[in-house]
Amino acid sequence: MDISVIIPVYKSETTLAPLVERILSTLRTYRMEIVLVNDGSPDRSEAICTELAERFQQVKFISLRRNFGEFNAVMCGLHYATGRYCVMVDDDFQNPPSEILKLVAEAERGQYDVVYSYYQTKQHSLFRNTGSWVVNQMTTRLLDKPRDLYLSSFKLIRQEVVREMIRYTGPYPYLDGLIFRVTRNVGKVAVEHHKREGGSSYTLRKLISLFLNILFCYSPRPIRLVTNTGFVLILLSILGSLTELATSFLSKHLPETDHLIWLTVIFLGGIQLVGLGLVGEYIGKIFMTQNGLPQFVVKKTILPKEIFS
């Protein structure tokens, strides 16, 4: 299989069929498949996915038992994808199917493991653009992402990288975090960006959840910031104590009692922060490796017949 197109489906009953038909037409010269993952959508999306999977041999359909979130749905789709290149596409037509060809061409030209898209003109709302900017700033600092790389949801990943990514079984997958755990061989290409024609949209709750996942699941730096703050406070209290003692010695007066109290409080506060940071390192590692929440739960699948032959 050359290309697997993974589409997380949520509230997209009006756009899903035209999107699938357009992708099949655009990629007709490739050996390709479309992997539809219904993420507990409350509308008729599941019924439409079922019809499409029964109608087109190139369409796989996986339905989840409840809404697990976009990243979890994409991870589910990656488990079923067999293409040499896996392309993630939203269900709202903001990324025209014809732009998939640009990602493939860039991957082959530069031999990249991952190719991200970026937009000359973005059609997102101010809220979504602000959220994207914050996420990109966070990932630059926490995941060592290149500053000039925009982390879009429309991207291509080689199958070799996908196989490493799906080894992660935790309940809080963040695709870009998993990508940068595996590779730094990443390219980018400009694509068109259209207005949304339907599908789900980002909410404040989703963005906050994403921020927390990045902070606490994919980097130890927040915990280490607490630890480093503790060390700085200890150092400041020691320097302050030495300064107070030197001043008292030169002036031949006893040190000010209130100064000593404040320095002692700062010193003990620093010790506590260091201790919390060290304990947090262990708890964070244990939490990330031992939690048993499912990443997704499959309710039903419709796969091509040759899968079973």
From TrEMBL:
InterPro entries per the UniProt record, alphabetical: Glyco_trans_2-like, Glycosyltransferase_2, Nucleotide-diphossugar_trans
Alphabetical GO biological process terms: lipopolysaccharide biosynthetic process
GO cellular component terms, semicolon-separated: plasma membrane
Glycosyltransferase 2-like domain sequence ranges: 4-164
GO MF annotations in UniProt: undecaprenyl-phosphate 4-deoxy-4-formamido-L-arabinose transferase activity
Protein's recorded name: Glycosyltransferase
Membrane-spanning intervals of the chain: 225-247, 259-279
Keywords assigned by UniProt, alphabetized: Cell membrane, Glycosyltransferase, Lipopolysaccharide biosynthesis, Membrane, Transferase, Transmembrane, Transmembrane helix
A Pfam family matched in the record: Glycos_transf_2
Keyword Coiled coil: no
